[in-house]
Amino acid sequence: MAGKTQASLLLQKQLRDLMKNPVDGFSAGLVKDDNIFEWSVTIIGPPDTLYDGGYFNAIMTFPANYPNSPPTVKFTSEMWHPNVYPDGRVCISILHAPGDDPNGYELASERWMPVHTVESIVLSIISMLSSPNDESPANVEAAKEWRDKRDDFKKKVSRIVRRSQEDF
């Protein structure tokens, strides 16, 4: 229980900090006021990227042993990106369990570390939107399209951006 209390105090502090000092490019809050472990995040598509002008909603779910383990982040908005699974889960190094990568793709220093905050996680996701990593894709179809049929990829993303603006 002590761990969960520590995690909830840390998350409350991060929420207060974000409310006091909002960060350009996203907004965050709780899904339900009585659950500090589930956050709703809206990411604004970064300027000068294919996602520019889109509004993308995601749920960030924190484990009871946060910050020792990473949260999961899942887009609830439609998303077409090499580093987002078809079900919306975000796949970036800093959300992978700490320590050495069993597959040898990532350095331990690229994986989850307890110093990460909601802000640093979301900024990493914004960076991911700006520059996809098609080396180890979560969505193989999106990665193939990104590599081989860039125009089709762009059309699909621009449709998603338009829909996200209508839904916003």
UniProtKB/TrEMBL annotation:
The active site is at C91. Residues 6-166 form the UBC core domain. GO terms for molecular function: ATP binding; ubiquitin conjugating enzyme activity. It is an enzyme of class 2 (transferase). Keywords: ATP-binding, Nucleotide-binding, Transferase, Ubl conjugation pathway. Gene3D superfamilies: Ubiquitin Conjugating Enzyme. It comes from the Eukaryota. Its EC number is 2.3.2.23. InterPro entries: Ub_conjugating_enzyme, UBC, UBQ-conjugating_AS, UBQ-conjugating_enzyme/RWD. Belongs to the ubiquitin-conjugating enzyme family. This is E2 ubiquitin-conjugating enzyme. It comes from Papaver atlanticum.
